Amino acid sequence: MGWGDRGVQIKTPEQIDVMRKAGLVVGRTLQLLRESVRPGITTGELDAIAEDSIRSAGATPSFKGYSHPPFPASICASVNDEVVHGIPGERVLAEGDIISIDCGAIVDGWHGDAATTVAVGEVPHDVRELMRVTEEALWHGIAAARLGGRVTDISHAVESHVRSQPHPTGGSYGILEEYVGHGIGSEMHQPPNVPNYGRPGRGPKLVRGLALAVEPMITLASNETTLLPDEWTVGTVDGSWAAHFEHTFTLTPEGAWVLTALDGGEERLQQLGVPFGGH
Question: pLDDT tens, 143-161?
Fold first, then answer.
């Protein structure tokens, strides 16, 4: 997709308020799933919990039936060396695994989209560090967004934070380049793309009414990926483990507002010295 402004959807404040409702459904569902992850539970059981949570809130799962082949579940559940788009099923989580859970919900035609990576019990230090770096990179990306800035200001901030962090084994983290964040609104995926790497000052302007899903996908080694035979699950070529965090956010005249964070992102943004623009 090109860097032009064509196709970029600008929402009214009222439409953003509906996206906040969808974002809260996603945020509460992910909170419930984090609490539900344990050794012995299956990814399919997590999916059932998610679908019940979304539908009980009067929302519709964004993912179910999406694209071709139609995605068969309400969450993506990607374990260990699976980066994104894992299909939930009979896989049993074990002590020491990590699982990326990606969740989307629709309220009155407007979408929310977020993801988190959860440790199953105790995990090795290098994996814990991978999760920390990836989540921090997400927040640094959001914190770099300003009205009048450009999309790749976010990209540059994500990459800069990842590159600044020491690797536990002396190597370097892999930043996925084929899979990126995106615009979001009346569709789950819209222009513009939001890469997790690159030089600042490029791409469409960051303006009021633009909503973006920022989602760093980081590995412990190579960033090369492969598509598994199910035509959805994306895994690492070298088998290195991966983490994935995502939030949907927008900018108001007051600052950033993270629509899928239960507190609107206020705590994390304040820690980074960034104005909070929610209400």
Answer: 999 999 999 999 999 999 9
Q: What is the CATH number of domain 13-271?
A: 3.90.230.10
Q: What does residue 248 show for φ and ψ, rounded to 5 degrees? A: -95, 130
pTM value surpassing 0.90: yes
Beta bridge partners of 175: 218
Q: DSSP for 183-223, please give it.
A: E-SSSSSEEEEE-SSS-SS-SSB--TT-EEEE--EEESS--
Q: How many other C-beta atoms lie within 10 A of the C-beta of residue 125?
A: 9
pLDDT tens digit string along 212-250? 999 999 999 999 999 999 999 999 999 999 999 999 999
30: which 2 tokens?
């992910």
Question: Per-domain residue ranges for the chain?
Answer: 13-271
> Are the beta carbons of 189 and 141 closer than 8 angstroms?
no
State the greatest distance between any 2 C-alpha atoms of the chain, in Å, as a whole number: 48
